[in-house]
Design a protein that fits this description.
This protein is of the alpha/beta class and 237 residues long. Helix content is 48%, strand content 15%.
Length: 237
Amino acid sequence: MGSIYLIRHGQASFGAENYDVLSPLGFQQAAALGDHLDQLGIRFDRCISGELSRQQDTARTTLERMASTYAGQRPSLEIDPAFNEFHADEVIRAHMDDLLAVEPGAMQVFRNAASHRAEFQRLFRYVIQRWVSGEHEKQGLESWQSFLDRVHAGMSRLLDQAEKKDHIAVFTSGGTITALLQLVVGVPAVNAFELNWQIVNTSLSRLKFRDREVTLASFNSHTHLELLKNPELVTYR
């Protein structure tokens, strides 16, 4: 059987004007992942990333640390927008009026997210539950089903092009991994997102495939961070 490793990007710049930038800790997490994979001798036949900077920088940093495994022959990084994250800021804006009706202080929380992490998470969870339910569609906003279809198309392309025993790395984001888990495991979207909140930066979730049959082999492994015995390395944004 072949394997697809779903790798979440390193810590981004939560609360900053541009979230799509790896933090110094994010680069450290990616380097730790590369060192760990190198020690294990895991060799990827293909490496794919979404278009986002945090995804690509995680991929490049990880692969650069796998020097002894590849001996200068590491695969090139392929870019596929199917593995981009959903637009969380657009989802929040589209549902803001509805949210303000029940949470008048929501705007202040979102404007100062880094200082109100717990409140941000509570309100963001509420917005996501509305979005994935499919009962509150907003004109011009990518729906959960459209996002799911986009991710599914990317996975289908991977499987169509894969050799039987390929090891494929996909550097992506938490929402994308959640969508893939829903497709593979078949749990409802709301339940899948309960898993999303647990996905650690640079964690690995492994899918095994035979032809078009895909199964979940492991979820959210972050041993490479735990072995360093530094709790600050385990982050979720």
